[in-house]
């Protein structure tokens, strides 16, 4: 089960590699969905019944702090989690969140104007605040086609 792409980085942050941490990373790495802590717990618990929900929450907090996992709030009252990068170098993406049905659309086909604006924004913020930006999370909220049609 060892995933070498993160194992060394984990130890580099001063944390031990445990069965629970490996299992949670494996669940996140094998999913293309934005999973809640409960979703992760139910999947991990099937194979490792001794791993409790508290351990999942605590581990997710550590993984977010270490920069392995993104934590999202899509407005449904549950935090969602996703690996920042997987062994295949998962591509950076943004989100479209429907306020009607809660659907989340990942997109990577950025338009040229969007890329240019983000580069200018990052450059300006870096200079203004003397801050080394390493990444960003962007979510657009609105209505999907189905929900727009219902109004």
Structural account:
This protein is of the alpha+beta class and 151 residues long. It has two domains: 1-87, Winged helix-like DNA-binding domain superfamily/Winged helix DNA-binding domain (Arc Repressor Mutant, subunit A), CATH 1.10.10.10; 91-151, Ferric-uptake regulator, C-terminal dimerisarion domain (Dna Ligase, domain 1), CATH 3.30.1490.190. 45% of the residues lie in helices and 15% in strands. The strands form two sheets. A three-stranded mixed sheet has the order 4-3-5, with no helix packed on it. It has a two-stranded antiparallel sheet with strand order 1-2. A hairpin with a 5-residue loop joins strand 3 and strand 4 (104-107). Helix 2 packs across helix 3.
Keywords:
single chain, 151 residues, alpha+beta, Dna Ligase, domain 1, three-stranded mixed β-sheet, two-stranded antiparallel ribbon, 6 helices, 5 strands
């Amino acid at each position: 089960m060892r995933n070498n792409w993160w194992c060394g980085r984990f130890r580099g942050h001063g944390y031990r590699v445990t069965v629970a941490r490996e299992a949670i990373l494996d669940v996140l790495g094998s999913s293309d969905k934005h999973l809640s802590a409960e979703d992760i717990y139910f999947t991990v618990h099937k194979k490792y019944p001794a791993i409790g929900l508290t351990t999942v929450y605590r581990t997710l907090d550590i993984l977010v702090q270490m920069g392995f996992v993104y934590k999202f709030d899509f407005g449904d009252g549950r935090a969602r989690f996703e690996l920042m990068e997987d062994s295949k170098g998962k591509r950076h993406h943004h989100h479209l969140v429907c306020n009607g049905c809660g659907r989340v659309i990942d997109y990577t086909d950025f338009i040229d104007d969007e890329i240019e604006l983000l580069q200018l924004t990052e450059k300006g913020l870096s200079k203004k605040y003397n801050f080394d930006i390493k990444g960003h999370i962007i979510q657009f909220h609105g209505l999907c086609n189905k929900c727009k049609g219902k109004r």
